[in-house]
Structure formats: C-alpha cells, structure tokens
Design a protein that fits this description.
The complex is a heterodimer of chains A (about 500) and B (about 180). By secondary structure, chain A is an all-alpha fold. Chain A is built from 25 helices and 2 strands. The two termini of chain B are about 40 Å apart. The chains are: A mainly alpha (about 500), B mainly alpha (about 180).
C-alpha cells in the first residue's frame, strides 16, 4: 500500500517538468476542442494522436493520449450546452439539462457546473484507479485460459446488452462480427493464414486503429455532413466559475455518479455514454420530488450527474486496460493499442513486469484532470467561436487526418482502404441500430479468445468440465447466462405466468 | 427508420449474416488439421472461427425468426390504409428526387472514397489539395448563383486546400517523420 503511494508520489514528481506539462496543456486543450466539435469523438481524437505520438517516448505519448481522452469527454459538454448536440456520445445526457440552462441565459453557469462535475468525476475515478487497479491486478494473476475465455464472451455479451438496450441481439451480433474480423489474417499458434483468400494484405490482418478510425471517424463524417448547419445558442456567457455552495449542495449526487461512472467504466467496452445515462437516471430517481420536476428543464443536479458520471468512467475504463488488457470503452481500446505500440504489455503480468507503470498512469490521469479543470474554466469565449466553423470546411480536414492516421502506423495504403470500408460499414450498421462498441471490443477480444480457447481445450484434452467447475469461470458463466436469459422474452413470459399463478 | 422498415432491414440483414456464418463454418472446417504434426486437434486454426460462426448463426437465426414473427412475410396492407394520397396521386418529380440529406451523404462518401483511392497514384500534397478544394466547393456551391459570382467561395476553398495540404505534409513528413503515401 505504502509502496504504491510512494510510486504514485514519485510518478507525480517526475511529471512536474516544463516539457511534460506543456504536452499536457496542448493535448488537453486539443481534446476539449475535438470533444466540443460534433463529429469528432474522443475515440477519433485518441486514435489520431496515437499516430502523431508513436515516435515519442512511451510515457510522453501515453500522457498525451490520456489528456486527449479526458479533455474530449469533457469538451463534448460545450456543444451539448450551446448547440443541443452532444460533442461526443458521452455527452448526450448533458443536452437534457445543459441546453435548457443555456436557453435560460445561464450558459456560463452550465459550463462551470459541467467543468466542476467532470473534474470531480475524474478525481473519484482516479482514486478508484489508485486503490483497485493493483487489487484487480493481483486477482487477474490467478486468471487462466478458462477464465479468459469466459471473460471475452462475458465482455461481448454485457457490452452488447448495455450499448443496445432496445435490442441486445444487435449488440451481440455486432460483437461476434468483431470477433470474426479479428480472425482474419495470420493466427498466433501455427502461423496459419485464415480468411485471406490469397491476399497478402489481408494475411497481415485487420489493424485496430484503421478499423476504429473508420467506424468512429469516417462514419461520423458521413453522418455529420447529412445536415447543413448547427445553431449556436446566442446566450451571453458571463460567470463560469461556480460558487462552492452551488457544487457541494449536490455532494451525494457527485459521489453516487462518480462511483456509478467508475463501475461502468470498468465493464468491458461499455463506455462513457452509458455511464452518463445511468448516473443521470439514478440522480433523477434520488432527487427530491420538487427537484425531480426540474430534470429535463434545466436541472443543475441532472447536469452535474451526467458530467460527473461520464468523466468518472474514463479512469474506470483504464482499470481493465491495465489489469486485463481489455478496454472499458472505445477510446480506452485505442489507448490499449497505443500502449502495445509503445512496448508496454498491459494485462495480468503488468503487476510483475511494470508495477510502477500503473501508478504512472494514475498520475497521468491526475495531471490531465487538473489541466482539464483549469482550461475548462478559462478560454471559454474564444473556444465557442470554433463551434461556428462550418462543417463543410472542417470535415475535409478531419478526413485528411483520418487517412493519415490510418496510414502512418504501418505505412500501408491497405489500412486507408480498411478505414474507408469500416467507415461505410459502420455507418450502415449504425443506421440499423447496431452499436459500434461491441464490434470494436470484439476485434480486441478476438485474439484473447482465439489463443485461450484453444489453449484451454488442449489443457483439458477437449473436456468442457473445467470451464464450469473453476470458481471464477463459474461466476463469469453464470453472469453471462443471467444477462442473456434476462433479455429473453419467453423467460419473461414464464416468470409472469408463475407470478400470476402464485397470486 | 419506422418499425416496419427496421423489421424488413433486420430480415434481409439476418439472411446476409446467416450466409456469412455458414461461410465461416464451412471455410473453418476446411482449415488444415494439426494432428498430423503431432499437435492436439484442439489447436487447429479452425476451432475458434467455428465457434464464432455457430454463435453468429444462432444470433442471426434468432433475428430471422423474430422478423418473420413480426410479420415481415405477411403482405403489407399499408398502401390501402395510409390514405388516398399514396394510391391515387402520381409520384411527382420532386418525390422522385433523392432527399437532400441522402444526397449530401452520398456526395460526401463519393468524394472521400475518391480521395482514399487516388492516394498513392498522385503526389500526396496535390491530391490532398484537390480533395479539400473539391469538398468545400461542392458543398458551398449555390446553384441559384452564377459560377463567376461565387469566386470568393472557390478562392477560400483553394486557400484552405493549400493550407491543409501544406500543414499536413510539413507536420507529418518533416516533424513526425511519417512516409506519406
């Protein structure tokens, strides 16, 4: 415990130099700008910066990416408040109360509350990261192939369930398509090339970054260009810094949303948008009847809940990245990819191989959070002007960056084509209400599932018994079945008829 | 999308996915066995794709059955109940035209695909300039005005095109040492 705190303190001190702080400032500010522009998501920002930073030292690059991630998730609240359009999907719940506040002439106050909520949410998540990452890391050391198989399947099922609440079947299909995509190319045990149909380019596999830039970048560009312009609310932005009493009045909501956000962040692939919605819903249920009436009409508490929840999710999403090499959200998936590019091997062995890296990452989250808070409360008015840039002038520049971002890592034009194909496919699937997060999670989990399922079957000589008799495996299997069965209509009908009979 | 349209889309998607999953299973079954190399049959490269193929087949099969249960195969009687307009009024020219959002979407996709596929065949700064210039010009062009009257639009598009192309080339090629296509 004290050794951990010591490593955390050392990490903070090592980051307190001009070069690192300068990188943190520009990356966080760029994150805020990317987040606030509808069409540019946190995932896209982190993916683009991965290509910009891959020649830097590992710690510098990861700090920049974390600053971009935290900045973008917060930045999306600006357009949610001023345009009624969430800058990133994570800020969709923010529009419900942020925009009505702006219409009431309280845009400055709303921005201040969103900034403070995001700051406190990130801090709560950071403390959870500091305490639980080493603990989960120690538990993860006990994971064997059987547990990893169930964890991969559980990840797809819960991610599909939460990101497609209306129709989880589509979420699960999306996840299994992702798993299939990861099977393309050379496999890791016998170096046999699968599903390449003689193409040498496909034999190299589908890389994560181009696929993600396509599904979250190009697909978003097509979607944004559909309509002509956004209307920025013409409210005067006066006092941004909120009074402490305005904030601490909602301390229960802040702590509750922070915990919810962090927990949802730690669930594989689910992400910040769900964290914000669930936090908002809990805040609404927990509010006094008079305050509850205000939700959706400009409630400070509602705004605080959604922004605390989505930013608390960021450190939460990094916990499984570090301990299990499984991302908690789509931007965290890119972060995982970036760590691998820089030679860091996240996963159960991180506690053995790079224990100090866990605390360095927590320190990076702290630096990014503080930067986000300072930059969020300053430079509000000049940044609002960026929202007025016409989309037809911005989007070609963004697409150029998507192209370079896909190309830069492996210098393959094939990756640019992968990005385009995934962009179009992603757009069509989104139009048909297939969520993209399980697809991306599937691409990441595919390799884990492939190696561990085969390894487990070799160890058990084809017997399925250990998959159901080992304690952690049994828990993960039960949870997976519970999620699937809870969404089956025929089960609901049976339960209802049993209840009727008992009544 | 309306529920009916979505159900139809789900029906056709499920057929595509069922075909895909059967394809995955068949190809995976044809993958070589490693038993001849004294390896366990469970290490065969096709083991996991077969599992994924079966899972996808079950899920898409459920969607297929659900679409049928929701009446996708039942003859639609919408055209008789939606009102006289759909039956009697002939489709006008404006109705035949693509809706504006769809048009904008297709133009965006076409220009972006064109750019992505021109890369590597032309000099990168030139193709980037052309892409940005064409993109802005197409979306800012006002068909109600004469082309010459819109010289400012084209000038701005050219300036942004040159700026983007130069900045991207300098930053990536010289600062980040990336070999541009």
């Amino acid at each position: 415990m004290f050794e951990g705190l010591n490593m955390f303190g050392t990490a903070i001190l090592s980051f307190l130099n001009f070069k690192i702080l300068f990188n943190a400032v520009w990356a966080t500010e760029l994150g805020i700008i990317i987040g606030m522009l509808p069409g540019l998501t946190a995932t896209m920002g982190v993916a683009l910066l991965t290509t910009l930073t891959f020649k830097m030292q590992a710690n510098d690059a990861i700090l920049i990416l974390i600053c971009m991630y935290i900045g973008a998730i917060y930045g999306g609240s600006r357009s949610a408040i001023l345009l009624n359009i969430p800058g990133t999907p994570a800020n969709a719940a923010t529009t419900l109360d942020g925009y009505p506040l702006a219409l009431q002439g309280k845009a400055g106050k709303a921005i201040g509350i969103a900034t403070t909520g995001s700051f406190l949410g990130s801090l709560i998540g950071m403390f959870a990261m500091l305490i639980f990452t080493p603990l989960i890391g120690s538990i993860a050391l006990k994971f064997q192939s059987y547990e990893f198989v169930w964890f991969s399947i559980f990840g797809i099922i819960i991610c599909g369930n939460l990101t497609a609440p209306k129709d989880p079947l589509k979420g699960w299909i999306s996840g299994f398509i992702g798993l299939f995509v990861s099977m393309i190319g050379m496999e890791g045990i016998h170096a046999y090339t699968r599903f390449s149909f003689g193409s040498t380019e496909l034999a190299g596999g589908i890389s994560l970054i181009p696929a993600m830039v396509g599904t979250f970048g190009f697909a978003e560009i097509i979607s944004v260009m559909r309509y002509q312009k956004f209307d920025v609310v013409k409210a005067k932005i006066d006092r941004v810094i909120p009074k402490p009493s305005e904030v601490f009045k909602y301390w229960k909501t802040i702590i509750r949303s922070g915990i919810i956000g962090t927990l949802i962040g730690a669930i594989p692939g689910v992400g910040e948008d769900i964290a914000a919605w669930v936090s908002y819903d809990f805040a609404k249920r927990g509010a006094k009847p008079a305050d509850r009436e205000m939700f959706g009409k400009g409630s400070i508490e509602g705004l605080m809940a959604s922004e605390t929840g989505n930013n608390a999710c960021v450190p939460g999403a990094i916990i499984p990245v570090l301990t299990l090499a499984i991302p908690g959200s789509a931007p965290a998936a890119v972060l995982l990819g970036a760590m691998l590019i820089h030679g860091i091997r996240p996963g159960p062995l991180i506690m053995v191989e790079f224990p100090s890296f866990i605390y360095e990452t927590v320190a990076m989250v702290l630096i990014a959070t503080v930067m986000m808070f300072i930059l969020g409360l300053t430079m509000v008015k000049p940044l609002v002007k960026i929202l007025q840039v016409p989309r037809q002038k911005l989007m070609p520049i963004v697409f150029t960056l998507c192209v370079i971002g896909s190309f830069a890592i492996q210098s393959r034009l094939f990756d640019v084509r992968v990005m385009v194909v995934f962009g179009i496919l992603g757009f069509i699937l989104r139009e048909m209400e297939y969520p993209m997060a399980p697809l991306v999670l599937g691409i990441i989990l595919g390799d884990i599932l492939d190696k561990n399922l085969r390894r487990a079957l070799i160890l058990s000589n084809g017997s399925l018994t250990p998959f159901f008799t080992r304690p952690i495996s049994l828990i993960l299997f039960s949870l997976t079945m519970l999620i699937v069965l809870s969404r089956a209509k025929w089960i609901k009908t049976i339960i209802a008829s049993i209840r009727k009979k008992n009544a | 999308m309306t529920d009916n349209k979505m159900n139809k889309a789900d029906f056709y998607t499920s057929i595509v996915l069922i075909t895909l999953s059967i394809g995955i299973i068949v190809i995976s079954l044809r993958m070589p066995s490693m038993v001849s190399k004294n390896e366990s049959m469970w290490s065969n490269p096709g083991v996991v794709p077969i599992f994924i193929g079966f899972a996808l087949l079950m899920l898409s099969g459920s969607m297929f059955v659900r679409a049928i249960m929701h009446g996708v195969l039942r003859p639609s009687d919408n055209q008789h109940t939606e009102g006289p307009a759909s039956d009697i009024t002939p489709i006008s020219d404006t109705q035949k035209k693509l809706p504006v959002p769809m048009k904008r979407m297709l133009i965006t996709t076409a220009i972006c695909i064109g750019y992505a596929f021109l890369l590597g065949t032309l000099w990168f700064p030139l193709v980037t300039f052309l892409f940005v210039f064409v993109f802005i010009s197409v979306f800012e062009f006002d068909s109600a005005k004469k082309v010459l009257q819109q010289w400012k639009t084209f000038l701005w598009a050219a300036v942004i095109g040159i700026g983007t192309s130069a900045a991207v080339t300098i930053v990536f090629q010289y600062l980040f040492l990336v070999n541009l296509p």
